[in-house]
Sequence to fold (329 residues):
Amino acid sequence: MSPLVEFRSVERTYPSRQGPLHVIRDVSFTIERGGILAVVGESGCGKTTTGKIAAGLVDPSRGTVLFDGENISGFKGPELSRFRRRVQLIHQDPYSSLNPVRTVYQTLAAPLKRFRLVKNRTELLHKVRELLLTVDLTPPDDYLYKYPHQLSGGQRQRVAVARALTVNPDFIIADESVSMVDVSIRSSLLNMLLRLNQELGVAFLFITHDLSVARYFSWRGKTAVMYLGRIVEYGPTPEVTRLSAHPYSRALVASLPVSDPRVARLRAQDDEVGSPDVPSIQNIPPGCAFHPRCPLYMAGSCDRDVPELMGMRESESLHQVACPVVLTR
Ligand SMILES: Nc1ncnc2c1ncn2[C@@H]1O[C@H](COP(=O)(O)OP(=O)(O)OP(=O)(O)O)[C@@H](O)[C@H]1O
Ligand SMILES: [Mg+2]
Fold:
């Protein structure tokens, strides 16, 4: 059976005065039915663009996106509306994604009515209450007639998730869905989303700049580490995060907080990255884009050849890394 989602060498460029901006390049991955892929990387590396392409909201400049084995660029009419229902994007910013003049009830009732997913008003109210329970907004009647400004950031995000669930999606793209909420409620939001994955079988493309959040959410799935528009490491999350191979992923792991300060110091020395200034997409370094910051930099090759993702030799699994220096060590 084909995977639910497949990116094949997807590229997106935007024109600019300095020439084409390569926002993402050669991005390939698969997400199985009910699977999870976390995409992690610094600001501006192309995560949201990847998510929007997966949702069919931005077209790739090159490459192919398959959903359920079919090229999404060919979807039209009823096929396109079916795709739009099966795939839901939860926006980075719940403040701007919820209509401020609609109550929670109106927000959730609208798609249920539009797609005729309920027969009558009684069923509609029942369904809205059920959705609020699913996203842990309890008791539901306390929330039905509230407006977005009367809710906290975490509650708003839960309403955004409930709205995505109105149409029974198979695939949710969650773009920094827990980044704007307090740390104290982050884990309950993450657990709520994980329950949707485990109990309803919803597949996730989970976008975050925070490796610890990615690791927690996708522990049973995969992680793709992105750097300036390219995936530099990809594979089962335990391997990518415990046996990180790419110097950039290692630097991300090294920056995670650890409780023992001695371990933190050793780790920081081990994986220090050269410059704190992140090169930008407007000015991508030649060869491996990470080379100006890389502790393993080798002149003459790293600054000339763009490394491809290749399987880690000793690993039986699908753990891949785009760094020939690491692969030949
Ligand atoms: N429509 C567009 N036109 C021109 N440039 C764009 C467009 N959309 C995105 N970009 C540029 O592409 C790059 C990647 O943007 P993207 O939003 O995908 O990054 P991101 O990884 O989601 O960042 P963040 O973590 O800050 O949300 C940025 O430099 C951005 O300015
Ligand atoms: Mg983004």
Notes: Residues 14, 21, 23, 43-49, 209, 281 surround adenosine-5'-triphosphate (ligand 1) (CB under 6 Å). Residues 112 and 253 are 42 Å apart (CA to CA). The chain is about 35% helix and 20% strand. The mean pLDDT is 91.
